Amino acid sequence: MLRFAFFLMSALMTAACLGQPHPVKSRFTLAAPEYQGPAVDAAGRRTLLLGAVTAAPACEGRALIYRLGPDRYESDFYNEFLAPPARLLAEAAADRLTRAGRNLRVAASPGLAVADFGLEAHIQELYGDFHHAPPRAVLTLRFTLTDLRPAAAVVLMDRLYPCVRPLAGEGGAAGLVEAYGLCLDEILTELARDLDKAV
């Protein structure tokens, strides 16, 4: 009798668990709005190799991160990026710089050409700041441009690009990611101008 009661309770618990809806994750990309500027002639542009794209430890994972207090951060189990942010940034930067850069073209692969310049990127901050009102997206990127033509490479530019924007749309995770995209658009537009000046 005791064994039957145990099996009955196990069956009821299993049925209850199976009847519960499973949590659904939402996945987002990290991308700037499509470039709307004039087309750039590729002729005569020098080659830029997009090298390492890294992220601070707090920005390496795919989950969205929220700042909830002075020293309190929380990751969102239900909302995440499609891929690690560093990989998404590499794709977005290569696309934008190829379309917008007037003096440089991004090499698709290190093996295709000997690059004149190298560019490294680092995600320093990437989080939703809900500690302040209204909530805002915080994105800070660091780019380092190196001249690869001399025997010893020379750093031409090493700069931080911070951006803070209020959440877009109705807020929430989707509004946070949309604000990230607007920040990325602002940063990559400024970066393209700086690179053209530097080379």
Explain this structure.
The chain has a single domain, classed as ABC-type transport auxiliary lipoprotein component (Rossmann fold), CATH 3.40.50.10610. The chain is an alpha/beta fold and 199 residues long. It is 31% helix and 36% strand. Strands 1, 2, 3, 4, 5, 6, 7 and 8 form an eight-stranded mixed beta sheet that branches. The termini are far apart. The chain is built from three helices and eight strands; from the N terminus they run H-E-E-E-E-H-E-E-E-E-H.
**Basic shape:** elongated
Count of domain modules: 1
Low-pLDDT ranges: 4-8
Distance between termini? Answer: 84 Å
Topology, pairings included?
Blueprint: H1 2-19, E1 26-28, E2 46-55, E3 63-69, E4 72-81, H2 85-100, E5 104-106, E6 117-129, E7 136-147, E8 154-166, H3 172-198
Parallel strand pairs: 1-4, 2-5, 2-6, 3-6
Antiparallel strand pairs: 3-4, 6-7, 7-8
Helix pairs in contact: 2-3
How is this structure best summarized?
The chain is an alpha/beta fold and 199 residues long. The chain is built from three helices and eight strands; from the N terminus they run H-E-E-E-E-H-E-E-E-E-H. Helix content is 31%, strand content 36%.
Name some characteristics of this structure:
Rossmann fold; 8 strands; 199 residues; 8-stranded mixed sheet
